[in-house]
Amino acid sequence: IEDMEDGETGFDIYLLGQYRPTLDNVFRTNEMTHLQAINLGLDLCTALSLSRRDGYLYCNLRPSNIYVCNDREFRIGDLGFLSLDSLSYASLPDKYHSDYTPPEISDAYSSLNSTMDTYAVGLILYQAYNEGRLPVVGMSMDAPRHADPVLAQIILRACAADPAQRWQDPTQMGQALATYMQEH
Known about the structure:
This protein is α+β, with helices and mostly antiparallel strands. Helix content is 35%, strand content 10%. The strands form 3 sheets. The protein has a two-stranded antiparallel sheet with strand order 1-2. A two-stranded antiparallel sheet has the order 3-6. It has a two-stranded antiparallel ribbon with strand order 4-5.
């Protein structure tokens, strides 16, 4: 903890921890197996479900905020939480806008919705099964190259352009991924 620079009131707080590679690093090296990608989806859905249970929506999900621990576990590592109670009148700060932000949330005046997190999980899994590449924006979304039809359906539902067509809760998406793993 240090005093803020330039005489501002308050403190700068730095959290230090063991270095862990981010999911961005994994996507750049293209070294994710099918099992790792499914575990990624399950870990993210579990973390987001716990966040929801505590009354928060995680609104800054992107590969640079996901850390790989022990080559088997994925953890969210940023403080981009928003109270579910304030969702109807909150806006998304510019620093949280990314390629993983749903299309209906285009600016600070856009209404937020509770499918923002499942949309981001869908895009991250899309990227994992599409050689590290996101879909082209503004076009109809094709299935990821390396996802079988059942898994592609789970991923594409998460990435639906219409929020009403998406997984409404990360628990639902996590259950679909768990069922997929049991059957395949």
